[in-house]
């Protein structure tokens, strides 16, 4: 029975539960019918507004190339269906409300269920319409990543490690831009193709990018804008975005907006040959788009340094990987027993370069004849490209591209010298630069120091281009395949640099017919096993370089051999150990500029050299000579002389050294027989002669300990100050330690026991001072302190090293000031009685304010480093301390709860107040509702009339007006309003209903409807008008540009312009200044500021790049019209200027407010002809223009703003930002500041020069850049000629006539920052015949002043004082460049103000 009862209970309970639920819902819906109806109306209003807003967004997204996802389209369809269903439901309710019987039982009918059901559907759709992933996205047909066929690198350990490293960077949040560089053919593209393909597979890294875009750039031409447009198009094609606009800025803005819509993206730029301005392309910066990343590949390290944060150099394959790749390419034939030795040798010749391995291997695939493999090996060893399969096309030509893009012919010729060395040879940097000097490639540089700096810069350029590789600090290497290509170029393509290279191939002899061609310029037989040279060879009149070094078995040079090379400029016989003498005919080599006899250890005598009048470099080091050759005093062109390590050289005749008037570099170290200091401690005649050579700037010499007793004189001080580099090694040479630190100015004192009274001359210009096993340092320091008032501090000293000292410090006299204020390194080793560093600091007054590095070792009494109570207050710059071998220094919840309670109380109070107030004011509200409804309908009819008129002139209904009309129509046909009327009629006939009228829900409904009517009437005022232009032109397009927030002057200028834009009395603003001063950057920042919601005073902002440099006025104006029309989405098909202008005028008049930005205006524009409304017709239209010419501003605008160059602090900050942290390194910073000063505050020059030096740590490169800028030379990495000089040259190009151009070029003859007098300048012009047509001196002066005003007007001259003008440093550099290289009629040699002696 219990089981039966349970079954019966369960059977009965389920139907009962269902019936109860049904009845409960029916009752609930009936009781809440009116409330549900109000809620449904509100939900539908919000839903329709959300739908319309979404439609507008989707239309704009479609134009940006985005796609509407299916779930969004489904949602829109559901909203449309629900809107129709609710509208039909309301119509039924209104029609039935007229039936009084229906009105009475309205709440009990089925309609209450339908209202409740539609309300639930509306709420669900509202919830579903949030779209947290975005309402539009990329077209589904756009693949997230496209697979690109490429050879796999899975079996290459090095490449796999590189790929893993890049993938790791891609997953890092801190890394946004990755640079991959290496020589041509090394596998960069293969690597990034494999990375791209890996991203097509599902993985955490690949899933992190919504799209991967592969672009092959290959921007090898100089057409920058064309190349950038090509890149833009390729990116747009990948995104399925159409770019029809001509304007770079508009295209960039569209691309920028489209990429900003991607949550994440990866852009791969392959084969970049020139730095790309990503802002100009439209790539969002990492600051704006946190999810955007970039990978680029290039052959040039400087491109990586300028464009990326992290770099990866791709090295060649190791032996094992190279052999595996060769076997894959050549097939199984490579492993045959008889062929494998040749295959391995051929593979070795390819030197790990994947491109060469693959092509050479493929050309030998299936070849089984041994002879073919032997021939291939021989051809490779001879650097011949013709090994089946056109290796010349497939390997040599692609690599030759790196050679072709070198900046100039000089650098190309410098590179081709490198092929003269054997394979895998360590090329000494200094020796290579000396070759270049002797060949005449560096003739224009004033001294040997500048020559070396320029040479090292060229080497860095070649390394940047992956044509040279760093071997160690002092040597570079040429990759074997790169060497083969350079031999191929120099032996077959370059007639002017044709070379015959037989170096390092094991030759034992040279045949007499070896030089069958008479067109060779360079010949190299170095590093062979040649014993004898032929007695006679055919005459070689064009040969300028002959390298025979490292033929250790060579016994001599036949007279007749050398006479065949009478045009020889370079002869190198280094390390020909068996040569004892040189032939007498040496004296006949009148063109010889460099003679190198390094390590000719058996060479005993030199022939007379008096005939070598052009000799500039003589290296006679580590030989067995006892005397200098006859005629040495005749070598007046000699610039570099190395006589070091000639241990048997006993004397140098008086007068020889002083006769070498052009000598700049002298190395005489380790010549033990030569005496420079007399027995009485006086200066020897030889040393006096050396110091008397006026042009000598580099001196390396060993002096005995008596040099420390030389008295300091003004002459000696002044001479030491002139040296740019020196190494003085004084004392016992056997005690001197090897010091490897490459400093410019070094003094080594070893084993000194006796000190003179005045030794300041040793330290006054030194950078490094080394004391090694010396005595009496405390007394020596006391003597320095005693004379400190006269000499002052030693500001140049950066390093102090004391090794093995048994004395004490800290006793005796102390300095009044810091004698080594710039000391940044101190090394104290084996100081027996040193208790703390302060003991040493006290006598010299050292404060260590710039000390970075401390090293203390083997000091047994050391207790602490710094003692308290000394003048050493702080060590702010200290980075590292080494002691021995160790591094020793290297409330809210409660407040939130209270605020929540307060809000809840306010809600409850508002609800209760409405519930009491509405019944009391029921009748008044009812009358007010009737009046508000009548006024609302009247306003609606007025708006509709206005819209009909506007439609006739091409205007469209504004979206807010369209939405307001829809709300009014919905209010009028509101079922609740009609049901309210029906209920009021019913209550008037039914007294019972009328009695309880005030207690019903009707007062609340009346109050709600009254508020709604009032809100609608208030919203219907439309102060901006009811009709206007098309919605879709974006109000302001973001244009990528560098930020100026950290530039105080630029920020002030922007604030000034923004203030002018807010003034009603200012309509047209002119911004002018010289080219590159930052006008465009300023207005781009202003444009971008106007894209923010807080700056919405303009209904549209139109950016136009004018650049009207031609004289085709109508063509230029039509171009401007087209650009404006494109921005306004207005079609201009008419040819007539007037018709086009009329359409533009009418369209702009429809805008409530507009701002037209005209950038880069070169000639005044007639705005009426373009179609721009005048100030009188359109009170709210404004214009900003930028120009280089003040007269353009004066003719076209009301107020003008001249953009000045940056001040020193801003310029330095901008240079730091451009060059990176390397600019503030200790040795680099002074040069960086000097380079910044040379840029004279011009932002364009600062950015380009800084970027070209980014990441460069070698001081020589910075020195060379500074020298080049001082010489007004444009070729400093990064093609400054193209990026700075040519843009500025445009201002020169548009000068009215040749006369004014010639007048301007004369201004470059004056030094930098020179105040040029008006009268003197005009007199020069008169004397040159430039003003001859004027009748009297008065007219001449008037014309001259007019020309000066024209040049000032074009920003080419600046006003200095009342009667003086100045030329900006960079403008002067450009004018020197024009007059020295481009204008033959005005060719000038300018060396003014550079300190020439």
Which blocks of ≥5 consecutive residues have pLDDT under 50? 100-108, 735-740, 889-902, 986-999
Largest sheet: 17 strands, mixed
Mean pLDDT: 81
Q: Class by helix and strand content? A: alpha/beta
Give the number of helices: 49
Portion in beta strands: 5-15%
Percentage of helical residues?
40-55%
The total count of strands amounts to: 37
CA-based gyration radius:
43 Å
- Please report the distance between the alpha carbons of the first and last residues: 129 Å
In one word, what is the shape? elongated
Structure description:
This protein has 1397 residues and is an alpha/beta fold. Helices cover 44% and strands 11% of the residues. Strand 9 and strand 10 form a beta hairpin. Helix 3 runs parallel beside helix 32, helix 6 crosses helix 7 and helix 12 runs parallel beside helix 14. The radius of gyration is 43 Å and the shape is elongated. The N and C termini lie far apart (129 Å). About 3% of the residues have low confidence.
């Amino acid at each position: 029975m219990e089981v039966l009862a349970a079954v019966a209970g369960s059977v009965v309970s389920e139907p009962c539960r269902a019936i109860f639920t049904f009845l409960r819902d029916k009752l609930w819906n009936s009781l809440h019918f009116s409330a549900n109806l109000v809620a449904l109306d509100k939900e539908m209003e919000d839903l329709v507004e959300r739908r319309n807003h979404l439609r507008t967004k989707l239309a704009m997204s479609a134009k940006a190339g985005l796609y509407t996802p299916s779930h969004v389209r489904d949602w829109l369809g559901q909203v449309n269906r629900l809107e129709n269903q609710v509208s039909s439901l309301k119509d039924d309710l209104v029609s039935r409300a007229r039936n009084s019987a229906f009105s009475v039982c309205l709440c009990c009918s089925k309609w209450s269920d339908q209202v409740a059901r539609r309300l639930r559907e509306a709420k669900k759709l509202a919830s579903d319409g949030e779209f947290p992933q975005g309402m539009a996205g990329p077209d589904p047909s756009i693949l997230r990543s496209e697979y690109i066929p490429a050879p796999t690198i899975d079996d290459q350990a090095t490449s796999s490690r590189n790929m893993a490293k890049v993938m790791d960077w891609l997953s890092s949040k801190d890394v946004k831009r990755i640079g991959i560089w290496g020589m041509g053919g090394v596998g960069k593209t293969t690597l990034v193709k494999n990375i791209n393909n890996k991203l097509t597979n599902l993985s955490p890294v690949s899933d992190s990018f919504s799209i991967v875009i592969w672009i092959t750039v290959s921007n090898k031409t100089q057409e920058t804008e064309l190349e950038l447009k090509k890149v833009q198009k390729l990116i747009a094609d990948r995104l399925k975005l159409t770019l029809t606009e001509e304007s770079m800025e508009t295209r960039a803005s569209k691309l920028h907006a489209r990429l900003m819509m991607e949550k994440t993206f990866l852009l791969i730029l392959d084969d970049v040959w020139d730095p790309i301005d990503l802002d100009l392309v439209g790539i969002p910066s990492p600051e704006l788009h946190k999810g955007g990343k970039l990978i680029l590949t290039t052959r040039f390290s400087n491109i990586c340094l300028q464009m990326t944060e992290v770099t990866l150099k791709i090295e060649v394959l190791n032996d094992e990987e190279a052999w595996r790749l060769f076997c894959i390419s050549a097939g199984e034939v490579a492993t045959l027993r008889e062929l494998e030795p040749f295959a391995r040798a051929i593979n070795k010749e390819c030197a790990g370069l994947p491109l060469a391995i693959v092509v050479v291997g493929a050309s030998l695939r299936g070849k089984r004849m041994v002879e073919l493999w032997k021939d291939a090996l021989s051809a490779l060893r001879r650097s011949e490209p013709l090994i089946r399969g056109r290796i010349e096309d497939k390997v040599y030509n692609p690599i030759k591209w790196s050679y072709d893009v070198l900046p100039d012919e000089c650098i190309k010729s410098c590179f081709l010298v490198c092929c003269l060395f054997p394979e895998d040879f360590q090329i000494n940097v200094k020796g290579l630069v000396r070759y270049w000097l002797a060949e005449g490639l560096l003739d224009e540089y004033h001294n040997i120091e500048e020559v070396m700096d320029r040479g090292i810069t060229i080497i860095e350029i070649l390394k940047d281009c992956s044509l040279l590789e760093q071997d160690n600090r002092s040597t570079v290497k040429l990759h074997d395949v790169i060497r083969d290509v350079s031999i191929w170029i120099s032996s077959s393509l370059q007639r002017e640099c044709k070379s015959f290279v037989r170096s390092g191939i094991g030759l034992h002899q040279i045949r007499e017919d070896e030089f069958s061609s008479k067109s060779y310029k360079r010949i190299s037989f170095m590093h062979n096993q040649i014993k004898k040279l032929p007695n006679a060879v055919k005459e070689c009149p064009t040969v300028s370089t002959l390298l025979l070094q490292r033929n250790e078995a060579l016994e001599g040079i036949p007279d007749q051999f050398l006479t065949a090379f009478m045009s020889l400029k370079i002869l190198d016989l280094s390390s020909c150990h068996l040569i004892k003498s040189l032939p007498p005919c040496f004296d006949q080599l009148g063109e010889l500029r460099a003679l190198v006899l390094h390590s000719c250890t058996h060479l005993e005598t030199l022939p007379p050299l008096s005939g070598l009048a052009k000799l500039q470099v003589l290296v006679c080091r580590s030989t067995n000579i006892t005397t200098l050759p006859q005629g040495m005093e005749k070598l007046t062109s000699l610039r570099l002389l190395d006589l070091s390590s000639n241990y048997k050289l006993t004397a140098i005749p008086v007068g020889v050294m002083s006769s070498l008037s052009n000598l700049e570099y002298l190395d005489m170290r380790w010549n033990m027989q030569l005496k420079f200091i007399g027995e009485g401690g006086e200066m020897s005649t030889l040393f006096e002669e050396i110091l008397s050579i006026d042009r000598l700037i580099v001196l390396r010499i060993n002096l005995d300990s008596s040099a420390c007793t030389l008295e300091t004189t003004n002459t000696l001080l002044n001479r030491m100050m002139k040296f740019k580099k020196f190494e003085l090694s004084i004392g016992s040479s056997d005690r001197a330690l090897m010091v490897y630190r490459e400093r410019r100015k070094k003094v080594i004192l070893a084993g000194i026991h006796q000190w003179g009274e005045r030794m300041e001359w040793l330290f006054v210009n030194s950078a490094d001072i080394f004391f090694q096993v010396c005595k009496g340092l405390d007394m020596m320091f006391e003597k320095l302190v005693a004379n400190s008032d006269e000499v002052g501090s030693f500001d140049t000293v950066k390093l102090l090293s004391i090794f093995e000292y048994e004395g004490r410090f800290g006793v005796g006299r102390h300095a009044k000031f810091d004698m080594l204020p710039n000391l940044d390194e101190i090394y104290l080793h084996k100081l027996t009685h040193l208790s703390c560093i302060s003991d040493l600091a006290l006598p010299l007054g050292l404060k260590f304010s710039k000390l970075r590095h401390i090293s203390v070792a083997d000091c047994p009494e050391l207790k602490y480093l710094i003692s308290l109570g000394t003048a050493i207050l702080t060590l702010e710059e200290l980075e590292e301390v080494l002691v021995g071998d160790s591094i020793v220094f290297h409330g809210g919840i409660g407040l939130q709860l209270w605020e929540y309670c307060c809000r809840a109380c306010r809600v409850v109070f508002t609800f209760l107040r409405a519930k009491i107030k509405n019944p009391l004011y029921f009748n008044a509200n009812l009358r007010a509702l009737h009046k508000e409804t009548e006024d609302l309908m009247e306003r609606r009819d007025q708006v509709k009339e206005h819209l009909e008129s506007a439609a006739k002139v091409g205007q469209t209904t504004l979206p807010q007006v369209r939405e307001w009309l829809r709300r009014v129509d919905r209010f009028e046909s509101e079922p609740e309003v009609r049901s309210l009327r029906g209920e009021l009629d019913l209550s008037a006939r039914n007294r019972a209903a009328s009695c309880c009228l005030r207690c019903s829900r009707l007062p609340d409904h009346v109050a709600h409807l009254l508020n709604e009517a009032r809100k609608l009437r208030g919203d219907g005022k439309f102060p901006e008008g009811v009709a206007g232009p098309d919605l879709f032109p974006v109000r302001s397009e973001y244009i990528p540009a560098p930020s100026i927030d950290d530039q105080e002057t630029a920020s002030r200028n922007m604030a000034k312009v923004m203030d002018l834009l807010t003034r009603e009395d200012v309509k047209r603003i002119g911004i002018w200044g010289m080219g590159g001063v930052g006008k465009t950057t300023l207005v781009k920042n202003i444009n971008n500021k106007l894209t923010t919601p807080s700056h919405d005073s303009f209904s549209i902002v139109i950016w136009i790049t004018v650049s009207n440099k031609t004289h085709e006025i109508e063509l230029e104006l039509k171009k401007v019209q087209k650009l404006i029309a494109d921005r306004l989405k207005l079609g201009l098909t008419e040819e007539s200027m007037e018709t086009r202008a009329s359409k533009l005028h009418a369209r702009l008049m429809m805008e409530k407010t507009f701002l037209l930005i005209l950038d880069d205006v070169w000639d005044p524009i007639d705005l009426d002809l373009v179609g721009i409304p005048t100030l009188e017709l359109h009170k709210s239209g404004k214009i900003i223009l930028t120009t280089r010419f003040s007269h353009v501003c004066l003719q076209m605008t009301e107020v003008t703003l001249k953009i000045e160059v940056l001040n020193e602090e801003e310029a330095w900050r901008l240079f730091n930002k451009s060059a990176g942290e390397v600019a503030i390194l200790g040795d680099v910073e002074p040069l960086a500041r000097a380079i910044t000063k040379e840029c004279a505050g011009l932002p364009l020059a600062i950015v380009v020069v800084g970027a070209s030096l980014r990441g460069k740590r070698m001081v020589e490169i910075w020195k060379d850049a500074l020298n080049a800028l001082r010489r007004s030379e444009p070729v400093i990495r990064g093609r400054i000629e193209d990026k700075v000089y040519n843009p500025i040259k445009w201002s020169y190009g548009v000068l009215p006539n040749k006369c004014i151009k010639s007048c301007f070029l004369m201004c470059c003859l004056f030094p930098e920052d020179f105040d040029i007098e008006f009268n003197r300048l005009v007199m020069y012009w008169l004397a040159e015949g430039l003003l001859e047509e004027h009748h009297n001196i008065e007219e001449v002066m008037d014309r001259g002043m007019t020309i000066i005003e024209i040049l000032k007007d074009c920003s080419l001259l600046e006003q200095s004082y009342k009667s003086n003008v100045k030329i900006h440093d960079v403008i002067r550099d450009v004018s020197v460049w024009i007059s020295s290289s481009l204008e033959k009629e005005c060719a000038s040699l300018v060396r003014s103000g550079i300190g020439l002696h």
